[in-house]
Specification:
The chain is α+β, with helices and mostly antiparallel strands. It has five helices and twelve strands. A seven-stranded mixed beta sheet has the order 1-2-3-7-6-5-4, with helices on both faces. Strands 11-10-9-8-12 form a five-stranded antiparallel beta sheet. Helix 2 packs across helix 4.
């Protein structure tokens, strides 16, 4: 994987999308010390101060893009793989479907996947790489992220009490993600991979709010299907959901 480092970018994903055409059929790792236009899902602003891990991986797809639907979940596992050696005993990271990594109900990392579509006609899927953007709060204090966060945030520094080697952590995330993407391409999202995510799935077995397209539903979070889609039990029936977000029900 070719690594390209920048001091300041608008967005690592935007740069990754631009460079994908310059390095065809290559896996790329784009890293920025800071972003001034970082974003999360649905175009939400993503604060990216120095000390965080702001990166995007360009993955040259060998299969139809639909095969890569579990990519955000695999990226979450790749983050957990990388941070696990730094966490104190009893600190158990979780995945909030479909794209966040949580510690103690606080957001540590987020994932944004985007597709690069080639200009002009193409008969292969290899011309349409996938960009996996990952942001991790590492050697920063949550106060640096601003006061208008949609959910409480945390950082590795806050959890561990010390800084970690940022560059080595980024390399670890990228290597772990590449390994998991290769496994995905070797077969479907296997039962063992589904189980690995489900074991990390926050609020599994609990009631949640599901939000999508301005509508809200309440149901029981049961797990995932073989494509990484959410299984939500509502009024005794099971719904399979591939877009939206979940929220913990307010305690009364």
């Amino acid at each position: 994987m070719r690594r390209l480092d920048f001091d300041t970018l608008g967005s690592t994903n935007d740069t990754a999308l631009e460079l994908a055409g310059k390095y065809p059929h290559q896996a790329l790792l784009i890293v920025a010390a800071t972003q001034h236009g970082g974003r999360g899902r649905n175009g939400r602003a993503w604060s990216s101060p120095r000390g965080g891990a702001w990166l995007s991986v360009v993955w040259p797809c060998k299969l139809a893009l639909e095969h890569y639907e579990p990519a955000p979940l695999l990226a979450g596992l790749a983050v957990i793989d990388a941070i696990a050696p730094h966490l104190p005993p009893g600190c158990d990271p979780a995945i909030k479907w479909p794209n966040d990594v949580m510690l103690d109900n606080c957001k540590l990392a987020g994932v944004l996947c985007q597709r690069q579509v080639a200009a002009g006609p193409t008969t292969t899927h290899q011309a349409a790489p996938l960009v996996v953007g990952i942001g991790i709060n590492v050697n920063i204090d949550p106060e640096q992220l601003g006061a208008n966060l949609r959910q409480p945030a945390t950082s590795l520094r806050q959890v561990t009490g010390h800084d970690v080697d940022l560059s080595a952590l980024i390399d670890s995330v990228a290597a772990n993600l590449a390994q998991r993407m290769q496994r995905l391409e070797a077969g479907n999202f296997s039962p063992s991979q589904v189980a690995e995510v489900e074991n990390r799935l926050i609020w599994r077995g609990k009631q949640v709010n599901f939000l999508h397209a301005g509508a809200s539903k309440q149901g029981w979070l049961r797990g995932l299907d073989t494509q990484g889609r959410l299984l939500l039990e509502i009024d005794g029936g099971m719904m399979t959901l591939n877009a939206g977000e979940i929220q913990q029900l307010a305690k009364v």
